[in-house]
Structures are given as structure tokens and as C-alpha cells.
């Protein structure tokens, strides 16, 4: 992983490992970077200070854990994984891993591949399916659908439903 100023100057390398370090995401305050790395054979969630230092592993599961983002308070990293917690055993669902370490917890969704919390943490927008098709106007079974969850009420609303009606 590398960081640089917005204009491209001041580039600096953060990680130097033979493994693949992918899907970096800055914490809300910009002090940390979460990323996925296959240093132990499969992809797990790691964090590193944005200024550099030693990376710390947060997840230790045999399924691949792909970093998606952070909670608004910066205390948990959001990731997707296929840990048999969703609608089907091989379907990716969303989880949160505590920054300080500890057991990761699934979000109360049946599927999930991408997610982002509102600034106040009261809502989370997420996609249920990964975007595997790039064809414009694709509406097949793997079309990305966007959902909004009101966290406290656990109320789910599909966004853009009118677009799918004839």
C-alpha cells in the first residue's frame, strides 16, 4: 500500500510484504487504513496507521474477508465474507470487526457486498449482490440492488424500486 498527497506528490510506501494488500479504506478520522491481505493464505482484515508502522491483523477466519469500510466512529471495520451467515452458505454477508480486537459480528442482513453508514450511524446503505456484471442496464438475477437499513429499527427499504417496475 502507498499513500500520496491529492496532487500525487509525497508518495510513500506503507506496506512491504510479498502478499497482496488490497481494498484499502481510510478510517473516518484519517488516522488508520484498513485493508485485506492474504499474508496467512487467505484474505483477512488488517489495519495500519496512515503514517506507517506495523500492520495488525483483525480477522483470522478461513473464508476471505474483504474490507468494505468503517463505522462512523472509527471503532469497527466493515467487511464482507462468506461465513455461512447469510441466506445461503456461500453467499457473502457483511460483518464488523472491532478495531481493538475481539470477535467480529455479522450485520443483520441476509446478503451484502458493499456498505456505507450515514455520518450519524443511524442508517446503512448496502448492496446485497456483488456487481459482477458491468453491462449497462443489466437487470438479471445478479443486478446490484441498493438497500437502506435504519439501524435501530432494523427497517429495510429497497432504493430505486420504481425503476424496476414496468
Descriptive account of the structure:
By secondary structure, the protein is mainly β. Helix content is 2%, strand content 37%. The protein contains one helix and 14 strands, in the order E-E-E-E-E-E-E-E-E-E-E-E-E-E-H. Strands 3-4-5-6 form a four-stranded antiparallel beta sheet, with no helix packed on it. The protein has a four-stranded antiparallel beta sheet with strand order 7-8-9-10, with no helix packed on it. Strands 11-12-13-14 form a four-stranded antiparallel beta sheet, with no helix packed on it. Strand 13 and strand 14 (155-158) form a beta hairpin. The chain is globular. The mean pLDDT is 89.
Q: What tags apply to this protein structure?
A:
four-stranded antiparallel sheet; 14 strands; 166 residues; mainly beta; 2% helix
What is the overall silhouette?
globular
Q: What does the main sheet amount to?
A: 4 strands, antiparallel
Number of helices: 1
Distance between the termini: 45 Å
Which percent range describes the beta-strand content? 35-45%
Amino acid at each position: 500500500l502507498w499513500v500520496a498527497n491529492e496532487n500525487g506528490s509525497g508518495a510513500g510506501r506503507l506496506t512491504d510484504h510479498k502478499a497482496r494488500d488490497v481494498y484499502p479504506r481510510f478510517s473516518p478520522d484519517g488516522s488508520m487504513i484498513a485493508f485485506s491481505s492474504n499474508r496467512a493464505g487467505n484474505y483477512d482484515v488488517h489495519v495500519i496507521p496512515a503514517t506507517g508502522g506495523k500492520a495488525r491483523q483483525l480477522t483470522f477466519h478461513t473464508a476471505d474477508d474483504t474490507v468494505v469500510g468503517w463505522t462512523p466512529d472509527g471503532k469497527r471495520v466493515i467487511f464482507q465474507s462468506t461465513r455461512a451467515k447469510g441466506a445461503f452458505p456461500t453467499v457473502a454477508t457483511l460483518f464488523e470487526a472491532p478495531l481493538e480486537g475481539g470477535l467480529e459480528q455479522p450485520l443483520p442482513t441476509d446478503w451484502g457486498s458493499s456498505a456505507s453508514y450515514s455520518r450519524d450511524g443511524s442508517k446503512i446503505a448496502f448492496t446485497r449482490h456483488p456487481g459482477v456484471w458491468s453491462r449497462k442496464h443489466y437487470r438479471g438475477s445478479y443486478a446490484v440492488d441498493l438497500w437502506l437499513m435504519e439501524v435501530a429499527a432494523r427497517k429495510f427499504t429497497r432504493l430505486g424500486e420504481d425503476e424496476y417496475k414496468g
